[in-house]
């Protein structure tokens, strides 16, 4: 284990990334545990207020993210400072993304259906961090040989093509494939060639005069949602807590 850690993490300078990712995941899990205890009225925890204003944990999260980010940029990848700032950055990002839905909606939607977006953002970020840690580089540039890397045209073509596929996948409503496609271009290609979801800009632009394509897109989206929405919601409820139905209806 020590040899693997030295060879694959410390030697390539990935220790700050590992520490940041670990701090991020642990912070999210601990934060969700505390908020669920507060929600249930258990434990010694409670909401933090100042002058009658509820202080959401996204506030210290932003402060820690700024400190950790600037500190990491100013530090060497191999020094103690980089490791310490990486932990601070990971904690900050964990606190911020745990309330991602609040930032998105500019409302306290933590325990509503809209609050699920926070859990989705955390899962997506953790997965991307894991891919980067395992050696994947944005747009798959790490797959090129040394001779190809010296050819600027090849690199520009690879990055440009991968970005185009990711952009098409995004406009088709394949958000996860578009995001992961930045790291694994093959996923972006899959998202780009598959049918768009019926409520996306791509469908509104290109399926208006193609009723068969639109009908196929609606049918595929229906079967996809029917198959995956239930399991995804159960996993999110297990990980982040089940939303409050009354609050969700009230918000709408």
UniProtKB/TrEMBL annotation:
Transmembrane segments: 15-34, 54-73, 80-107, 119-141, 153-171, 177-196
UniProt entry tagged with the keyword Transmembrane: yes
Record key words, sorted: Membrane, Transmembrane, Transmembrane helix
Name assigned to this protein: Integral membrane protein
């Amino acid at each position: 284990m020590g040899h693997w850690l030295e060879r694959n993490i410390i030697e390539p300078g990935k220790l700050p990334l590992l520490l940041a990712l670990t701090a991020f995941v642990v912070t999210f899990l601990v934060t969700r545990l505390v908020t669920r205890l507060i929600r249930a009225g258990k434990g010694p925890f409670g909401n933090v207020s100042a002058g009658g204003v509820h202080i959401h944990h996204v506030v210290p999260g932003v402060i820690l993210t700024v400190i950790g980010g600037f500190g990491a940029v100013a530090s060497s990848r191999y020094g103690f400072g980089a490791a310490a700032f990486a932990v601070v950055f990971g904690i900050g990002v964990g606190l911020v993304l745990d309330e991602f839905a609040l930032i998105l909606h500019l409302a306290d939607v933590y325990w509503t259906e809209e609050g699920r977006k926070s859990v989705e953002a955390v899962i997506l970020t953790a997965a991307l961090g894991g891919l980067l840690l395992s050696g994947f580089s944005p747009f798959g540039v790490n797959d090129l040989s040394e001779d190809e890397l010296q050819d600027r045209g090849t690199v520009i073509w690879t990055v440009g093509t991968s970005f185009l596929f990711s952009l098409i996948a995004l406009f088709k409503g394949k958000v996860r494939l578009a995001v992961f496609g930045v790291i694994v271009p093959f996923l972006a290609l899959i998202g780009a060639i598959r049918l768009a979801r019926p409520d996306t800009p791509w469908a509104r632009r290109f399926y208006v005069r193609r009723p068969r394509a639109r009908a196929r897109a609606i049918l595929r989206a229906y079967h996809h949602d029917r198959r995956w929405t239930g399991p995804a919601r159960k996993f999110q409820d297990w990980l982040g807590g089940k939303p409050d139905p009354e609050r969700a209806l009230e918000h709408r």
